[in-house]
Each structure stands twice: as structure tokens, then as C-alpha cells.
């Protein structure tokens, strides 16, 4: 479960205050995948960062039962001078996981070959995404935060990512940001639409998609 209480977040944009969240209150149930919809610039990715704890809110609070992931596939927190394996070891220890097991899992999943033991700064963007997704799937979370991650890699890697992600979501919840209605339908049960700082909850993802499309 993720409980959002009186959450407000805003930025100054061209001299005007833009609200990403304005006094949002919602409880997201456990073991439920939720589609987060909204037009470009509505603040969906920002809201995920706030839920992940990587960006502060102006006010309000978020509480959860169980571990909430970082944004799946996000590679921005890796140390550039550490190797892929060393970055995996660091993350595994931070989350209390067996580092040797995680290294074995991510090495196999990411399919980086000898580059796995090269400095992260030498990785291409695709290699970074493979490493990041591998670590994300290697650590069990109660809630996964997903921001268009299924778009990385070639066809075979996308297929593997989708399979493993669906396996994880059998026992966990998720908040999924995607511009693809078919992706949202395949992953999500419920939905929420973010518009002008307000979040509208829908028990059925079809209702959320319908509302979002009506606003476009």
C-alpha cells in the first residue's frame, strides 16, 4: 500500500507557478498495478520521483507498507567510475541483498558480456538501461515504479523484460507511466489521471484511459 496525504509540489516556470501536485490524497492498494496517465508535462515522472523519495515534495507526506523501488530502469544514480558489477554489489548491500547472488543474476539478465566488468562511464545508453533494469528486477520490491521502461533494448530483450516484469507483478504492485494504451491494459488493473495538479482515481484502468483520452 502507498498512501499519499495532502501532497503538493510546484515549480516556477516562466515567472508563473506550475503545480505538479496540489493537495493530492489517495491510497494505492497493495499488489495492484496502477496506470498513471496525463498529458506531456503534467508531472507524471516527477510524481514517481517523489514517491520514490528521490525528489522532495513542497508539503504533505507519503507512507508505504513494504519496499518501494526507484524508477525502474533509471541509471542516474550509478557511480561512473565503478564497474557494472561493483555498482550491482553496492546497490545489493544498500538493500540488504546477497551481493554475489545479485551479481550473478544481473550478469545473466543484462547480457553485457565483458563490459559488465568495465567502468559504468564506458557504457552506451542501451547498456546502462540493461544494467539498470537487471538490478531493478533482481531486488524484490512490494511496489515497482515504471516509467516507459519496456521501450529499452532490442526485440528479444524487450520480450525478456516484459516476461520478468509480469512475473514480479504477480506478487507485487506497480505504478506504470506509459503513453501506450495497450501497455497500460496489459499491466494495470486500476488507473489515475494527473491533470493540473489534481489526481483522479479510477478502479478500472479502462475508465482512466477513457478520461485521459477525452482530455487530449
**Strand/helix succession:** EEEHEEHHHEHEHEEH
Bulk shape: globular
CATH fold call of the domain at 1-67 and 143-148 and 175-209: Rossmann fold
Specify the number of helices: 7
- State the major sheet: 6 strands, mixed
What's the mean pLDDT score? Answer: 92
State the low-pLDDT regions, or none: none
Proportion in β-strands = 25-35%
CATH-level-4 superfamily name of the domain at 1-67 and 143-148 and 175-209: P-loop containing nucleotide triphosphate hydrolases
- C-alpha Rg (nearest Å): 18 Å
Helix/strand class: alpha/beta
Helical content stands at 25-40%
CATH level 1 name of the domain at 1-67 and 143-148 and 175-209 = Alpha Beta
Question: How many DSSP E strands?
Answer: 9
* Sheet with the most strands: spatial strand order: 5-6-7-3-8-9
Distance between the termini: 30 Å
Instruction: Write the CATH architecture name of the domain at 1-67 and 143-148 and 175-209.
Output: 3-Layer(aba) Sandwich
Notes on the protein architecture:
The protein has a domain at 1-67 and 143-148 and 175-209: P-loop containing nucleotide triphosphate hydrolases (Rossmann fold), CATH 3.40.50.300. 36% of the residues lie in helices and 29% in strands. The chain contains seven helices and nine strands. Strand 6, helix 5 and strand 7 (173-177) form a beta-alpha-beta unit. It is globular and about 50 Å long.
Amino acid at each position: 500500500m502507498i498512501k499519499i496525504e495532502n501532497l503538493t509540489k510546484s515549480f516556477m516556470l516562466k515567472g508563473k507557478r506550475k503545480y505538479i501536485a496540489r493537495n493530492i490524497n489517495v491510497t494505492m492498494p497493495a499488489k495492484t498495478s496502477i496506470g498513471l496517465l496525463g498529458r506531456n508535462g503534467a508531472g507524471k515522472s516527477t510524481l514517481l520521483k517523489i514517491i520514490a523519495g528521490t525528489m522532495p515534495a513542497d508539503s504533505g507526506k507519503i507512507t508505504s507498507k513494504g519496499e518501494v523501488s526507484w524508477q525502474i530502469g533509471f541509471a542516474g544514480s550509478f557511480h561512473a567510475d565503478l564497474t557494472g558489477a561493483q555498482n550491482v554489489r553496492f546497490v545489493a548491500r544498500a538493500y540488504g541483498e546477497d551481493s554475489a547472488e545479485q551479481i550473478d543474476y544481473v550478469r545473466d539478465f543484462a547480457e553485457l558480456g565483458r563490459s559488465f566488468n568495465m567502468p559504468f562511464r564506458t557504457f552506451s545508453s542501451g547498456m546502462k538501461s540493461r544494467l539498470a533494469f537487471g538490478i531493478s528486477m533482481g531486488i524484490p520490491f512490494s511496489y515497482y515504479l515504471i516509467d516507459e521502461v519496456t521501450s529499452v533494448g532490442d526485440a528479444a530483450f524487450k520480450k525478456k523484460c516484459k516476461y520478468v516484469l509480469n512475473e514480479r507483478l504477480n506478487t507485487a504492485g506497480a505504478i506504470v507511466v506509459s503513453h501506450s494504451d495497450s501497455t497500460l491494459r496489459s499491466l494495470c488493473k486500476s488507473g489515475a489521471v494527473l491533470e493540473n495538479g489534481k489526481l483522479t482515481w479510477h478502479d478500472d484502468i479502462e475508465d482512466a484511459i477513457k478520461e485521459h483520452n477525452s482530455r487530449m
